[in-house]
Amino acid sequence: MAALNNHQTNSQTRLSLVSSVDTKSQVTQIRLRIYIPKCYLQAPVISQLISSYGLVVNITKAMLQPNTDQEGYFDIELRGTVPQISSGLAYLESLNLRIVGKPNADGDSWFC
């Protein structure tokens, strides 16, 4: 499992989460856990991934508690082309969100 933080924001780090594809137009997917600090609990973070970057987002788990000082998180699957996913990850990194992810592999389970 690769961890991303605001110190590793180059495109190579982002693309390391994307499984190998033959062309940049081929659709692929990745799984992420995105930690959401309290200041972003009311922000349309997931909606932006869909509307601005054309990604298909499947939320597989969420833990958000608006009346607490604790951060929440989303477990999501992002589906799109490599450039779409890379741009979406750059957006999430620009918000300084903590992101944990791993490439999808058929038949595996999500563990963080």
TrEMBL record:
InterPro entries in alphabetical order: ACT-like_dom_sf, NIL_domain
Domain of life: Bacteria
Domain called NIL: residue spans: 28-102
UniProt cross-references to SUPFAM superfamilies, sorted A to Z: ACT-like (SSF55021)
Protein name according to UniProt: NIL domain-containing protein
